[in-house]
């Protein structure tokens, strides 16, 4: 079904905030469809970073001087803002990290190494991003725990019957991706949380592709841990978030040691600072955190329901248009039940060739395994091309993608 532009966001106004979208390559305007890799940054967020360095830059929690106090307050408030954005109880539950990957490693090392051992099981899905898959796989090797995978069915959905069998009283951690960055599947994470909790297991949700695109409430989901990155939601690179239930973070030992994360240090021993600072060793991600709070404001001004609707309708339109190509393989669920991305292979054309030719038309998509190699292996393909959308993309840009694909098809005919 073709969405009317009026049903979507006021993209023309939004695009004015993103100067990079005006870039041209050999006289052709950029069509940026690689948002699942990283989103573009609005002036409001860029200005927040520049203003911070122009007016407020100081190290936090150290100085009693005015600048340091202002920087500290802004940095602490950024935790409150992010907590509000994801429905956490408060700043105690929001740890700033470098990216979603570091958030996962924090839990894997701080909780996993201490709690897991032979006989314990970690249940993941076949559609996990390497950030979770490789991390838990390696922690399992270190601890003697076993990893199991919930299968993905032919349509790209999780086999929930298998999930109910795989998650048992031996399961200590269920680690699931909320939205697949390859298939576009939106997983039933609340249901998985219920199953996990019925067996006294914890659940870790990888929200790298959900928080930027839909309303997320970590307490509604009942996630024990939840991770995402700032750079996929209009924020800068260099900031990720780890949400954890307060009592769990309280019980966990820190993952990184050093300054800022301590309370009392003697030559013999140390005690830890209160949450969340216990997990933020060294000089933290100050400007990035403050800018992420601004990105939350920007998204909330649009409304996360509207963000979600826009992305999903564009993906549905793209899915329908791409389906017209003979011999195309589209990965994942039907067009009306997917997140804001479409991965595909155009007949026998290699995804890297597709993406290179699209680049000649200034259409930016990603090609490769999207950090889901085992999933691609299961699907029997080496790679796929992926178009992923965000608030500033238009139906006309999807049409440009389709036109460029027609040229690609003609070249390989
Ligand atoms: N989890 C998912 C589902 C992701 O899509 C990504 C990044 C990550 C975790 C890791 O995020 P990072 O910020 O720590 O790197 N995904 C992609 C992608 O699809 N293309 O480039 C990065």
What's the topology here?
Elements: H1 11-15, E1 24-25, E2 28-29, E3 31-32, H2 43-56, H3 66-86, E4 94-97, H4 100-115, E5 121-125, H5 130-143, E6 146-150, H6 160-166, E7 171-177, H7 189-198, E8 202-206, H8 218-221, E9 225-229, E10 240-244, H9 246-251, E11 262-265, E12 270-272, H10 286-302, H11 304-323, E13 328-330, E14 341-346, H12 351-360, E15 363-364, E16 366-368, H13 373-379, E17 384-388, H14 395-412
The structure holds ligand 7TS.
What is the helix content?
Answer: 40-55%
Whole-number mean pLDDT: 96
As a percent range, the share of strand residues is 15-25%
Integer tally of domains: 2
Heteromolecules bound: ligand 7TS
CATH homology-level superfamily of the largest domain: Type I PLP-dependent aspartate aminotransferase-like (Major domain)
Q: What order do the strands of the largest sheet run in, or round the barrel if closed?
A: 4-10-9-8-7-5-6
The largest sheet is: 7 strands, mixed
Q: What ranges have pLDDT less than 50 throughout 5 or more consecutive residues?
A: none
For the secondary structure, the number of strands is: 17
Q: Which CATH architecture of the largest domain would you pick? A: 3-Layer(aba) Sandwich
Distance N to C terminus: 28 Å
Structural class: alpha/beta
Number of helical segments with 4 or more residues: 14
CA radius of gyration is: 22 Å
CATH class of the largest domain: Alpha Beta
Overall geometry comes to: globular
- Quaternary state of this entry equals single chain
CATH topology of the largest domain: Aspartate Aminotransferase, domain 2
